[in-house]
Amino acid sequence: QVQLVESGGGLVQPGGSLRLSCVASKSIFSINIMAWYRQAPGKQRELVASISSRGTTNYADSVKGRFAISRDNAKSTVYLQMNSLKPEDTAVYYCNALYLLTMYWGQGTQVTVSS
């Protein structure tokens, strides 16, 4: 079992920045892949970014060059730095962990980009 707790969401103006954090209940060094997904109202949940245990990263085309995923193994924490935010980035952002072929989800944190 892996429990995930997200934080860092909020309201930000277009062009602004936010950093999301996801703290895991076990060492993320042993977790195969950590990722951030998001779900906007009326839309399907989509992958935003992922990072493997070896540090390999992957991004959705819509966030490349603006978002950065990173991990701190010592703190069992994964971050999502979001810059140059756009209104279309508004969504609930979920932390995800793939561990021993099982996917675990956090409760989500709301990000709203609006003037």
Salient structural properties:
115 residues; mainly beta; seven-stranded mixed β-sheet
Structure overview:
The protein is an all-beta fold and about 120 residues long. About 0% of the residues lie in helices and about 55% in strands. The chain has no helices and eleven strands. It has strands at about 5, 10, 20-25, 35-40, 45-50, 55-60, 65-70, 75-80, 90-100, 100-105, 110-115. It is globular. The model has no long low-confidence stretch (mean pLDDT about 95).
Structural class: mainly beta
Count of helical stretches: 0
Radius of gyration: 13 Å
- How would you characterize the largest beta sheet? 7 strands, mixed
How helix-rich are the residues, as a percent range?
A: under 10%
- The succession of helices and strands, N to C, reads EEEEEEEEEEE
The span between the termini is 40 Å
Number of β-strand runs: 11
Query: Low-confidence segments, ≥5 residues, pLDDT <50?
Result: none
Q: What share of residues are in beta strands?
A: over 45%
Q: Specify the overall morphology.
A: globular
